[in-house]
Design brief:
By secondary structure, the protein is mainly β. The protein has 1 helix and 24 strands. The longest helix has 9 residues, at 349-357.
């Protein structure tokens, strides 16, 4: 059970959801808790609940050199211009590059319902508990949030689901509350075993081949799960395999109108004992997935997928490795499973984004 609270003056309002996450197509359920703490009634006609789901992205796109005092005009919807971060001219002491901020959004659902009407337009002192529920559509992507900021890259994307309860009287302090929640996509993946083979020669000092076979008995996992990776290594070379590595990799694509940014990054890794030259080994490597990760997600603006990298680490040579695509889902039977709910999407993140873009890079002329 999850609860979000506000300070009780002159009333408190909470939302408790019945599950830590919901699956596409099922009914999301919970309770709105309302407590009037004052000794006198509070004016309000109704309690309203709103369920909303959307994906959103934005990016800073470098604009080609623009004259001083001029602004770019591009026909991209929802854009903001004139944010200086560099336009170089020799009669200036600083160079500035100008960026155009573009945003994109896909709305999955946005529906509001009246939970209850208060008799006489007044809420009497006391405690109230109102059931709330919403039929989730099928085909929703899983939750996601990330912000990539680096050399030539500044973009953010998120898949967000939230529920909001509020009184129709906005003048009352603490009269509304909003809570984000998690959605897991429909499980449509056919579960199967994973097998991969790779081999390599060494150009210098190896005089023999290195072979690796990897077997994993399924391709669908939950956060924090322990994965037995069966590996066979035949090292016919004189080079030692310093270690056997298993890495969980995340492959993400963020889109914003015509702009697209893709990246692959390591989530977590484990290193195991290697194999000496002219030796063979057959082992089971127990790899534990990170606990705080998003599920596999396929949206229009955001795609988040995963794969395993299994590597033979060879010093002073290219590693021998295989890549095995997998899927990450939340599983109802895992009672204490940690759910990653927008850990890096702080309140007001989208509004702060334009401020982040205003970076000045002085360059003396």
């Amino acid at each position: 059970m999850q609860t979000v609270s506000t300070s009780p003056s002159p009333l408190s309002i909470d939302i408790t959801l019945d599950k830590p996450y919901f699956t596409c197509g099922e009914q999301a359920t919970g309770v709105c808790h309302l407590k009037v703490l004052s000794s006198t009634p509070i004016p309000a006609n109704s309690l309203i609940v709103k369920w909303k789901g959307y994906e959103r992205s934005n990016a800073a796109i470098p604009v080609s050199a623009i004259g001083v005092g001029h602004h770019p005009h591009h026909g991209i919807a929802h854009h903001h211009t004139g944010i200086s971060v560099g336009v170089g001219h020799h009669h200036h002491h600083h160079s500035h590059t100008q960026y155009q901020i573009i945003t994109d959004e896909t709305m999955f659902f946005s529906q509001a319902f009246t939970v209850t009407l208060f008799e006489g337009g007044m809420i009497q002192p006391g405690e109230y508990h109102f059931p709330i529920y919403f039929q989730l559509p099928n085909g929703l992507p899983g939750i996601f949030s990330d912000h990539k900021l680096g050399l030539g890259v500044n973009c953010r994307a998120a898949v967000v689901y939230k529920v909001k309860c509020k009184l129709d009287n906005n003048y009352i302090p603490n009269s509304k509350i909003s809570k984000r929640f998690s959605i897991v996509p429909n499980f449509s993946t056919i579960m199967c075993a994973l097998d991969s083979h790779n081999e390599k020669d060494f150009l210098f000092g190896g005089s023999g081949k290195l072979y690796m076979d990897v077997h994993i008995n399924k391709n669908v996992f939950t956060p924090g799960e322990s994965v037995p990776v069966q590996i066979k290594v035949r090292n016919d070379s004189r080079k030692d395999v310093a270690g056997l590595k298993v890495k969980l990799m995340r492959d993400v694509t963020m889109k914003c109108h015509s702009y697209s940014h893709s990246y692959s990054e390591e989530v977590n890794r484990m290193v195991f004992e290697g194999v000496e030259g002219k030796n063979s080994a057959e082992r089971v490597l127990n790899f534990k997935l990170a606990e705080n990760i998003f599920p596999t997600s396929e949206g229009k603006l955001v795609k988040c997928n995963y794969h395993f990298d299994v590597e033979c680490d060879v010093k002073l040579a290219l590693d021998l490795e295989v890549h095995l695509p997998i899927h990450v889902f939340y599983h109802p039977s895992v009672v204490n499973q940690h759910i990653s709910i927008y850990d890096n999407l702080e309140k007001g993140a989208w509004e702060k984004q334009s401020v982040m873009y205003q970076q000045t890079n002085p360059e003396q002329k």
